[in-house]
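Query protein
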Amino acid sequence: MYRLICGRGESDAQPYIPDMVQKMKDDGFAYISDGALVVDVKEDTDTKEIPPCMILKSDGASLYNTTDLCNDCVAYEGLPSG
């Protein structure tokens, strides 16, 4: 189960990233492609080729979109949000 933690800063997301990444792997959303951890974002109705969204670089570093995803979309229920 997820809950929103919107409106937080980039550094606020850092403690949540490892759990979010593990959850995305466990649930089958994230997978390795060319050494990086990615998530498919293409929808069946898309008419153009949409590449996967990179969550972690091949060296394990997170990206701006990783912290955005963590802040805007998912955090484990029960984790402190403040």
